[in-house]
Design brief:
The chain is of the alpha/beta class. 36% of the residues lie in helices and 19% in strands.
């Protein structure tokens, strides 16, 4: 009796296993024939969440002529088949690559950032050469991202980053106070790739005596990629107990990005200010994180920045009022043509 029951249960168990195996084979075949079919991994849903967030909020699809649905078709199956987080990140990287957006980056669970796009344009600033120019001057490293000196008698201020951990509004004010009453000033933001634009706007406010518009902003307002808000003006007003109203040269170049471009936008609207050097990076921002999976995030910009002349900054940058060419040969010879030009011009300032 017991043996018969055991044999019957064994037959049922074998049959059940055969049915289950057949179902798995059928599912595998179905997934192979349909690359969009879901699989039992978290990467499938994570890719969809990322794609949907960009689809709903990213403002530059039409401007950059990126067919976002095609990127979903091309990379969703790759993400779904990923056997590791690295393979999944590679699939997302492929999807966002055509955006060529310096404000789209990965953040891993430890907080380390990985770019998805890095510009390759020649940068008109060289740290080693710059330090040689500082040698023998009354150079003061006020904070890690802030330095002052005088070059042949011309006041000079360098802001290397708008980073609240490295420089504060009070630091900027104190540095400017050193040059109160002077007739000219050089502000060097060539090494500055951005940060907190509140610092940038606070410094710009020390040079204007009136309220002025320096930028216009647009954001997504609907599901279609072309659903954008009207241009919203961005203004600053005079700030501080006094304003620097002498001649100012702002030194900019291809590393001057994001919030530094905001600074350049506003400064060039102020009478007496001239931007010299090279066109800025062309990288607007206001990024926010989008959760992926396993503690990973991807950051996405949420607005379009336009200059006071309504030109989009992304991919175009801001052209200087005076172009000063620089080559690698100049740096190899220890020359900084942008600094040389600014000092020579402002030494004659009344």
């Amino acid at each position: 009796m017991w043996r018969v029951r055991i044999e019957r249960r064994s037959r049922v168990t074998v049959q059940s296993r055969r049915v289950a195996l057949a179902a798995l084979i059928w599912a595998a075949v179905a997934c192979a024939s349909d690359p969009t079919a879901p699989v039992n991994r978290p990467y499938d849903a994570a890719f969809d969440a990322m794609w949907s967030a960009f689809d709903a909020q990213y403002p530059y699809f039409e401007y950059k002529r990126v067919h976002w649905s095609a990127q979903q078709t091309a990379y969703r199956s790759q993400a779904a088949r990923a056997a590791s987080i690295d393979e999944f990140v590679a699939a997302v990287q492929g999807a966002v690559e055509p955006l060529r957006d310096a404000h789209v980056w990965f953040e891993d669970p430890s907080g380390v950032f990985r770019p998805t796009y890095t510009a390759t344009a020649f940068v008109n600033w060289d740290r080693a050469v710059w330090l040689e120019y500082m040698t023998g001057t009354p150079y003061v490293q006020v904070r890690p991202s802030l330095a002052t000196t005088e070059l042949s008698g011309v006041p000079y201020l360098s802001v290397g980053a708008w980073n609240v951990a490295q420089v504060s509004i009070a630091d900027l004010d104190a540095a400017l106070e050193r040059f109160r009453g002077r007739s000219a000033l050089i502000i060097d933001v060539r090494p500055n790739s951005g940060g907190d634009d509140r610092l940038a706007l606070a410094l710009a406010g020390r040079f204007t005596t009136t309220s002025l518009i320096g930028e216009y902003l647009q954001t997504r307002t609907g599901p279609r990629h072309g659903d954008l808000s009207a241009e919203q003006p961005r203004a600053i007003a005079a700030r501080g107990s006094w304003q620097f109203t002498g001649r100012v040269y702002v030194l900019a170049g291809r590393r001057s990005a994001s919030s530094t471009e905001t600074f350049v936008d506003f400064m060039r609207e102020i009478p007496g200010v001239t931007v010299i050097g090279d066109t800025t990076a062309g990288e607007s921002g206001n990024p926010a994180p989008v959760a992926l999976t396993g503690g990973w995030k991807i950051w996405m910009p949420r607005w379009i920045v336009r200059t006071a002349q309504h030109q989009i900054v992304e991919w175009q940058g801001i052209a200087p009022g005076i172009v000063v060419p620089v080559t690698a040969a100049d740096f190899a010879a220890g020359r900084d043509p942008v600094l040389d030009y600014a000092v020579a011009a402002l030494r004659t300032a009344p």
